[in-house]
Specification:
heterodimer; A: alpha/beta; 6-stranded mixed β-sheet; 6 helices; 6 strands; B: alpha/beta; about 35% helix
Amino acid sequence: MRFTKTILPITLCILLASLAVPAQKKGRAAKPRKPVAVVSPIDTEALKVLLTQQREGPLLVNFWATFCDPCRDEFPDLVKIDKDYRPRSLEFVTVSLDDMTDIKTSVPLFLDSMKATMPAYLLNASDPEPAINLVDSRWQGDLPATFLYNEKGEVVYKHIGRVNTAELRAAIEKVVSKKGDGQ
Amino acid sequence: MKSRNLSILLASLFVIANAVFAVGARAAGEVPPPAAIGSTIEDFTLPDADNKDHSLKSLAGKNGTVLLFISVQCPVSNAYNERMAKLAEDYKAKGIAIIGINSNVAEDAAAIKAHAAEHKLAFPILKDSGNKIADKLGASVTPEAYFIDVNNKLLYHGRIDNARNPAQLETSDLRNALDAALGGKTIDKAEAKAFGCTIKRA
């Protein structure tokens, strides 16, 4: 009697609750993911300012796109480079050449999946040619493309295509050590 | 006998050294420089998606030919499918032939055929296995166009137009070049950087 009045309802409640939890989880998973990473639009003029302005340390810029396989392949290495060298005054920004319609969807979702926290831009230009010429007149616009600038804004390393991590790290070491941080 | 063995050994070493160098050169990911405007593109032969060989000469238009490096998977190239189909249709009547070339290592003949049917690409598409023609012309991305005259002289190299998104179209560089050549005028802009997906080389 006591079992039917007290223990049975409690048992049923626990059972129902345990069934409800996976149902809720399923419901959450069905919602589209909202990206955490923020990607800012950058036009050709603003890119020019970013590349040529006076800065305290070196600047690494990676041009990429979500549709570019070698870009996606090299991204984990770039995230590691950012983690390792940001404390040593390396400024690292990424510039996506995806379509503007991807700025709140596939681009930040990819950055989230990579746990990338460096400032992220997306080129907002109907014609990418002036921006490509601004960066390097000999660059054809093929991706990925990685450029390292010293504090004077001079290109000290560039690589078109999937980057050689050891080579890039060696180039960064040269410019960060010039700062005399002794690390 | 000894000298014969030595010759074989030296020849073998030469072959091995060449193979190692070739792999090294590819690993560096270097694309040969693009063919210069005014240079002559040699005739070549490539198979279509049905494995039927075609020479450039056999497909050339009477007023010129556009070699268009395209892809099955690249979203930039795919954004141009309709524009490429229209381009081929518009200029066929004017005697300019469009020839698609697929040099991507991972895109086989079956995929090219299915893609062309799905997107109504009515121009011939050739499979450039081993990216030999992409290397010869220095093509690096898709889509990327090379316009040659009846004597195979390169008149224009680069993009189809300025915008992946047709709503942002401002300059139709390739059409401008074709129209200028058809009208016997000088092409104002003979080179415009092609933007797209890197050709996946073998």
